[in-house]
Specification:
InterPro entries: 4Fe4S_Fe-S-bd, 4Fe4S_Fe_S_CS, FTHF_cligase-like_sf, Helical_ferredxn, LUD_dom, LutB/LldF, LutB_C, NagB/RpiA_transferase-like. This protein is α/β, with parallel strands linked by helices. About 50% of the residues lie in helices and about 10% in strands. The chain folds into two domains: about 300 residues, Rossmann fold; about 70 residues, no CATH class. Helix 4 crosses helix 13 and helix 10 packs parallel to helix 11.
Amino acid sequence: MSGASPRRAGHTYLGMPAFPRAAAEAVADGRLRANLRHATHTIRDKRAAAVAELPDWAQLRAAGAAVKDRTLRHLDHYLEQLESAVTAAGGRVHWAADAEEARRIVTDLVRATGETEVVKVKSMATQEIELNEALAEAGVRAYETDLAELIVQLGDDLPSHILVPAIHRNRGEIRDIFRDRMADWGRPAPGGLSDRPADLAEAARLHLREKFLNAKVAVSGANFMIAETGTLVVVESEGNGRMCLTLPETLISVVGIEKTVPTWQDLEIFLQLLPRSSTAERMNPYTSMWTGVSGDDGPRDFHLVLLDNGRTDALADTVGRQALRCIRCSACLNVCPVYERAGGHAYGSPYPGPIGAILTPQLRGVGSELDASLPYASTLCGACYEACPVAIDIPEVLVHLRRRVAEGGEATVRGTRTRIRPARGHAAERAAMRAARWTLDHPRALLAGQRLASRTRRLHPRRLPGPGRAWSASRELPRVPEESFRDWWQRTRGDGGTR
């Protein structure tokens, strides 16, 4: 989708259309497709080279998956350990069952400081709970400090990629956004600003420096939380995170409970997997770690908001829970043929691409038309699984969620039992599957059907009627051969082919 559609949604993903409609609009945008194709191919080619340098990449990948699975199995224990360690280090821990509670906690904490501005480190969790909008309603202005997030914010837009939120914008568009909107948020862009990357970065640096030096409150997420010491870890490439995490007097971190890892030794695995898989770097440029508060060094007050918001429900699903391994590297987006053409906005969630297609329906449920459509936003080609540094079998989870959407029934969403309505057309689909099962269980009936299909092949339509019309609207039916395989076998190899 182009930048216009998210603006109609009021700066949030609420009310966005189901994936097929949104994707159809995005695919028609030639400039968007060109931007995505250039960016994703560049990133994935660099990533492939960086990963190939490590002879033990497969072992690291398996180790990362094993650590995540072990942590998720005993998540209650590690979260209690984390809370004790953070508290002992001088921090305060707040538990948020859902987005509404998380927004209320953060808003109250900011209000208690008396400040009306906060600086932010890039955070998927705060996008998930729509924190910026909640703070704005409370009279608090949140300033994004990540370069790509800044572009999105100034452009009155929505992120479209996990790692590169402004991937749908080109340099000319970014220059125009800086020229037109920077003054509304603080220091204006320099006169005569060009679209050279160095000039755009310098304009952002000058604009943000004032925010860093004046801010008293910062809001962040975290890539990892180490249970044994209560240490939080943020990895980033620009240094803006380091400024937000050290200069303000109050730091509030909103982090999903699945970001927990047990020990520092476990962290070592992910600090090898994440940089190469996300930015194709051997080592992350800025890795910031903090444990509680420490005198005059860094913030005087530290608050950790542990966010559930559907994660416990996802954890109860023995197939779908592997989505909680995700370390937000975005490698799956960069190899996905669907994402490359549709872009991130079509997914209607802060989590786009293959990982969003399995994570969002588990966090939000599949009760809405949009969420029910996401498990189908894939070709099941498997490229995402091959790229995932923690071996999430995304195709397996997609098929699992498609079954949930098709069959309906009861499910737990954020602690509440709810009924999922079966997908439209499910009755016809179920009848067709039962007919196919009966036919395959009766070889003579199958043979008779194959021969009848071959003899009437010239009468077959090119498009399916009725419920099958939607499926065949974008694809032609395969042509029926002149004779079946069984008839060919009998004719060329003897009489064994009919039994």
